[in-house]
Amino acid sequence: MSRIEKTFESLNASNWYNKVTKSGTATAQSFTGTDPNMQLRLVNGETSLNGSITYSEFLLNPELTSFEFNTDISWSPTELTGGDHYQIQFGSTNKRTILFNFWGDFGKFAPGPVYPPEFQGEGIYILNSSNYPVFKSVTAPGPKGPSNTWFSVRVLYDKTAANTWTVMINGTTVLTYADPNVNSFQNTANNNGVIVTAHSGGGLKMALSVRRLGLTYKAMMPVLTLQTGAMPKKFYPSADDSTFSSNRAAYMRTHYQRITDTATAGEVTKQKLIYNRHDASSRMERLKLQAIGKSSLRVKETENIQYKAPNVNDVREALSRARAQGYVVPPKFR
Questions:
Q1: CA distance 86 to 102
Q2: In this predicted model, what pLDDT tens digit does every residue of 138-150 receive, in sequence order?
Q3: Residue 318: exposed, middle, or buried by beta-carbon count in 10 A (0-12, 13-18, 19+)?
Q4: What is the rounded CA–CA span in Å between residue 58 and residue 64?
Q5: Is the pLDDT of residue 86 over 90?
Q6: CATH architecture for residues 3-222
Q7: Which terminus of the chain is more exposed, N or C, with fewer CB under 10 A?
Q8: Band of pLDDT at residue 154, cut at 50, 70 and 90
Q9: At what angle do helices 280-297 and 243-255 cross, to 10 degrees?
Q10: 39: which strand partners?
Q11: C-alpha dihedral over 168, 170, 174, 180, to 10 degrees?
């Protein structure tokens, strides 16, 4: 079946706080402010603790072509002169993490992990699924300031672009990275979710808040084409009108927009539809529309739509006669 690229919005400034799950130090915090500036404090100067929010309904599958994640960040040190880090993680079973690190000794000393010199110190990192740095930008990971100072963070992903990942802070590009493992990233089962985490360290403690989260993505979705969706030839006793095509078009306009990356066309068309009270003729019209739409959309990727049922009775009767040497059981004994 042919596919077309469609755009979906999962999070925006007016709904993100109803869709995320809090964990760590963020659990004890309440959302404050009003739309579109509802905000949440993830950490507040605690010692060696994390605070996170998770949106788990974003699926990283082969149909995904690109996505854009946005948020506003406000952070300030609460002890010493700097913060520790915050990060944005995409995926769960095969993840990619954008690490915004403010700690100058990151990756230098045991007992923590020790990394090569090019992956040490302050900066913005790409971490692979094992949390190992694979790329570092030496650009500062964001301005410091009082807690009422906000700066925008934008993460762009495009699997077909030369630079798969692009990170921008306050409108300035601070990191670009060509991911060599795009296919495995999007072909791992149950790879889903976006997690924003902040860490207030043992020495470098900080307070950090987020607001205005946004997530939009593009994915390839099934669409009816000339090959799979051409109207059938009219066999007797087909009506010589446009009832079939018009009802199928009406069904698609109503239900196709509900098909997402986690629900196939077949799954959507199997849903039970409940209508308000109508007269008998309106009810029959809706049932007919629903029947036509379901039957012409529930197809597999390798199949074309077929509108004429095969005649299997003639074949069965011929086989029966051949096996019985021409004899057929009388109807009253069947």
A1: 9
A2: 777 766 655 568 9
A3: exposed
A4: 10
A5: yes
A6: Sandwich (2.60)
A7: C
A8: very high
A9: 80
A10: 32, 211
A11: -10
Q: 184: left (phi > 0), else alpha (psi -120 to 50), else beta?
A: alpha
- CA 100 to chain CA centroid, nearest Å: 23
- Taking the C-alpha atoms of residue 12 and residue 19, their distance in angstroms, rounded to an integer, is 10
- Other beta carbons within 10 angstroms of residue 175's beta carbon come to 23
> Of 69, 133, 130, which Cα lies nearest the Cα of 101?
133
What residue type is 28 in one-letter code? A
State the amino acid at position 48 in one-letter form: S
Mean pLDDT of the 36-49 span = 93
What is the domain partition of the chain in residue ranges? 3-222, 226-306
Asked if residues 106 and 122 have their Cβ atoms less than 8 Å apart, the reply is: yes
Annotate the chain with three-state secondary structure.
CCEEEEEEEEECCCCHHHHCEEEEHHHHCCCECCCCCCEEEEEECCCCEEEEEEEEEEECCCCEEEEEEEEEEEEEEEECCCCCEEEEEECCCCCEEEEEECCCCCCCCCCCCCCCHHHCCCEEEEECCCCCEEEEECCCCCCCCCCCCCEEEEEEEECCCCCCEEEEECCEEEEEECCCCHHHHHCCCCCEEEEEEEEECCCCEEEEEEEEEEEEEEEEEECCCHHHHCCCCCCCCCCCCCHHHHHHHHHHHHHHHHCCCCCCHHHHHCCCCCCCCCCHHHHHHHHHHHHHHHHHHCCCCCCCCCCCCCCCHHHHHHHHHHHCCCCCCCHHHC
Separation between Cα atoms, residue 268 and residue 255, nearest integer Å: 8
261 neighbors 219 (Cβ within 8 angstroms): yes
User: Mean pLDDT over all residues of the chain?
Assistant: 82
Is the pLDDT at 265 greater than 80? The verdict is no
Signed CA dihedral, 176, 178, 181, 183: sign only: positive
| Residue pLDDT, tens place only, 174-208 | 999 999 999 899 999 899 999 999 999 888 888 99
Pairing state of beta strands 133-137 and 123-127?
antiparallel
